[in-house]
Amino acid sequence: MTDIEKRKYDELARISKALAHATRLYIIHKLDEQEYCVKELTEMIGADISTVSKHLTVLKNAGIIIDKKRGNCVYYKLQCRCVLSMFSCLTNVIDSNKDKMNFT
Amino acid sequence: MTDIEKRKYDELARISKALAHATRLYIIHKLDEQEYCVKELTEMIGADISTVSKHLTVLKNAGIIIDKKRGNCVYYKLQCRCVLSMFSCLTNVIDSNKDKMNFT
DNA sequence: ACGTTGTTTGGCTATTTGACCAAATAGGCA
DNA sequence: TGCCTATTTGGTCAAATAGCCAAACAACGT
After folding, report:
1. How confident is the model over A42-65, as a mean pLDDT?
2. Alpha-carbon distance B59 to nearest alpha carbon in chain A (angstroms)
3. CA angle, A19 as apex, B44 and B24 as ends, to 5°?
4. How far is CA B70 from CA A14, A46, B50, B55, B74, in A?
5. Which of A63, A102, B23, B41 is the 20 to 30 A CA-CA neighbour of A79?
6. CB of A45 within 8 Å of any CB in chain B?
7. Residue numbers in B near A91 (CB within 8 A)
8. Which is nearest to A9 in space by CA: B39, B4, B83, B24?
9. What CATH number should be reported for the domain whose range is A3-103?
10. Nearest residue (Cα to C1') for C16?
11. Tell me: the pLDDT tens digits for A68-78?
12. Strand order across the A65-70 sheet
């Protein structure tokens, strides 16, 4: 693996690491519907608000979501909807596994 | 998050965790070209062979690659090429970040 | 200015992950 | 059988991750 390649795959991994958590995938799914503030997401998720805030920071640092302060609250929304295609990718893998199972 | 949802996102996360490593993304990329055995991949990657073997196990458990013993060697290949679309997803996010940068 | 609500940050602990080495295992082939 | 090559497994250690709590911040309304 050359240095160039190394850097390229590190960068790709940086994004995919941000996606590698059930809560963060859930957040992305929710933010696809509409914007939500931290408190609202926290209620839906059912974890400590500081935990949710940190997950949101991870997604923001990966450039997947973006925040916007409005009044008292910080609203988050998807920065690029292209991450949604990730869901179909993941689902494809899962389904394809199931298919393979059936042959055995 | 309902129990059903919890289980769904855990499952999606299970796959995305398997993708969340530069070396594993590199392996996927390489296996897209052709089958390779552990030793060959190890040489390309430049890590300990046991490390590479473990990465391959992770990918195999996620149903992303599949192994096939031939003679003395274990060859790995992509189980479902649909993971390749993951690369364009990740690249999209990165590019979209770059685009956003340019506006600031 | 003060209290209230919403959010982030820092600190701590527990768990998971990734790397290497050494040892065990598996399959050819002499 | 015994050696050799290829691969996996187990152990250990360091680093990263995720969770919660408490404290700090920020912005609103009184």
Report:
1. 97
2. 11
3. 15
4. 35, 49, 19, 20, 6
5. B23
6. yes
7. 12
8. B24
9. 1.10.10.10
10. B17
11. 999 999 999 99
12. A36-37, A73-78, A65-70
